[in-house]
Amino acid sequence: MSELRRNPITKGWVIIAPERAKRPDQLQKHMDQEIDSNLEAEGTSACPFCPGNEESCGEAVLTYYGDNRGGRGEPNWSLRVVPNKYPALVGGGEVMRRAEGAGDLFMHMDGKGYHEVVIEHPDHLQTIATMPAEAVEGVLASYVERYGVLIERPEVELVTIFRNNGPGAGTSIRHPHSQIIASPIVPMNFRHVIEETVRYYDTMGTCVYCDMIAKERMLDRRVVSETEHFMVIMPFFSRSPFETWILPKAHRASVAGIPEAEVKDLARVLIDVLGRLYRGLDNPDYNYMIQCAPYQEDPADYYHWHIQILPKCYEVAGFELGSGIYLNTTSPEECARFLRET
């Protein structure tokens, strides 16, 4: 029988309807990864992110060379962060809201902000699931470093770090990369999350995410793995098959200043969970997002940074778009069991 489940953070509802579903091992939806198939003929010379094509991306804002970070002019880089050539937000303009016509019905403002690309590895065919731990540590360290720089800029209110893996997840270049967007606004869905986490804290005196970690450990039905610093779960209120959360045990509102030991641990956790998805679902398209509190909310006792991973095993359709209620055809308990055994 299907079941309605409430998200304790947003108070939104999802429907878990396993009778509509295939088994987890039948949810493989591996899309053609050769989205830049011209490389077969031309080689990596056509990829702007590959070594030798650095000038096509402009000057890097951050470069790692093996164990040495921040140097310039050396040929053998291990990671580069560059401005996005086709940015969603740009550095110019003013952070000032204006109305179109009389009144304040149609408000607009300049698209001021920052949009950066993290080129995660020199090898065109790598992905997080297949990279060595040291390389993933570098990716995470670059997130922390750029987050710290961008969030301190006066016009920035929210920094979003995300990775689109595969064409079904919105990427157009196969080379391993992720993105960072710093924006001057906090969108309403995020404001709603903050309001609800504040309400929970005011009522219970605790952080809802910290309580979730304790509850999931006690129930032990949706935990995929656990390390010294992190817990990996399929949330009770999963919106789609194999939605996965990585929750840090230490309470912080953002990734700003997280210790190196946690970065190292997180690299291994991320490789492990993405590796399980890679093997179990045949390298699915996915998005992951690192959710941090807006600038004005950090530090906060009520918000807890975390990573959400959403494999593209299921297409959002008319019911979800019309009602706002997600319909998940595979229970998180079954998905967690499948990944633990993968």
Provide the structure class.
alpha+beta
Write down the domain tally.
Answer: 1
The radius of gyration is 21 Å
Low-confidence stretches: 30-42
The largest pleated sheet is described as:
11 strands, antiparallel
Number of helices: 7
Give helix % range: 25-40%
CATH topology descriptor: HIT family, subunit A
In a nutshell, what does this entry contain?
The protein is an alpha+beta fold and 342 residues long.
What does this molecule look like?
Helix content is 26%, strand content 21%. The chain has seven helices and 16 strands. The strands form three sheets. It has an eleven-stranded antiparallel sheet with strand order 4-3-5-8-10-9-14-15-13-12-11, sandwiched between helices. The chain has a three-stranded mixed sheet with strand order 1-2-16.
